[in-house]
Amino acid sequence: MELRIQNLSKRYPNGTQALQDVSLSIKPGLFGLLGPNGAGKSTLMRTLATLQEADSGSAFLGDIDMLKDKDAVRRVLGYLPQDFGLYPKVTAEELLTHLATLKGISGWLERKRVVDALLHQTNLHHARRKQLGGFSGGMRQRFGIAQALLGNPRLLIVDEPTAGLDPEERVRFHNLLSEIGQDVIVLLSTHIVSDVRDLCPEMAVLNGGRVMLTGAPEDILVRLEGRIWKKFVDKAELSKLQAELPVISHRLLMGRTLVHVYSESAPDASFSPAVADLEDAYFATIKGHLVREATPAHLTAAS
Ligand code: ADP
Predict the structure, then answer these.
(1) 52: which residues sit within 8 A by CB, 6+ positions away?
(2) N or C end of the chain: which has fewer CB within 10 A?
(3) What is the pLDDT of residues 69-122, one digit of tens each?
(4) Domain membership of residue 206 as a residue range
(5) Any atom of ligand 1 within 6 Å of the Cβ of 38
(6) CA–CA separation, 194 vs 202, rounded Å?
(7) Is residue 129 included in any domain, yes or no?
(8) Which atom of ligand 1 lies at the shortest distance from residue 206's CA?
(9) Do 189 and 260 share a domain, yes or no?
């Protein structure tokens, strides 16, 4: 089953163009949708999750017309929204059992089997009798995945799931996502580059409601080889450099400012080549140096 989104556009009544001609083809596995705040990720996720309307375009999940046949989508969809509310006084087991009933999982024994399996899968079985109000951020997000997996979805949408998680919880959450069945389409929206780097064989960068780049991270990185240059600068030098050269990122490293510049050749002898990483690709895209489809590595090598 493939998710095919074509020319999806959405403008909010206040005039914000949140999506503009978004087209993506997404196969089973983890797909990373990366973009800064305001890029349109949640709008796209909510539209695919049947919670809001698009103005134009289409989205098909296999042969389900997602914009028209919302009931059919809901039968095969698992969704973890960005603002996932929980009933604080209810235990994990109680809420999951209740949600299983709502999902139509009938029969006490079958519900118990499904709920138990999901609590084990999300590493929450030990906490099943704890009230959700006492859960840590990571536990809440894992519970969010447990509820989203009820009913064996074919499409799992997770919107900014790792925001606010500490590094250990993030690793745990990544492991959980990476263990979800091979034949499920998992659409992961995030503004955190390492989420995509760690998890996703395919990705897209969304910015200003448009798809700026799609491809496999390794193919995207091939396009950057030899084009990222680095240099340590004084803080005072930074704005001058930014005015003169395509600076794609700068960050503090051991108290000094490390600058990455996008350039076909060394801007001058003071720069040294940097090994491009996905963060470079992301910022180069957001700043307009990389566009649309990445050429697969094997084609680049053959030509
Ligand atoms: P992201 O999830 O990437 O942060 P969103 O889809 O939430 O992006 O937002 C995309 C743009 O649409 C932003 O400019 C945001 O302010 C705007 N937006 C989102 N929801 C609404 C709304 N209900 N009404 C008006 N503008 C909205």
Answers:
(1) 10, 43, 46
(2) C
(3) 999 999 999 999 987 878 899 999 999 999 999 999 989 999 999 999 999 999
(4) 1-81+157-163+178-222+289-303
(5) yes
(6) 14
(7) no
(8) 3
(9) no
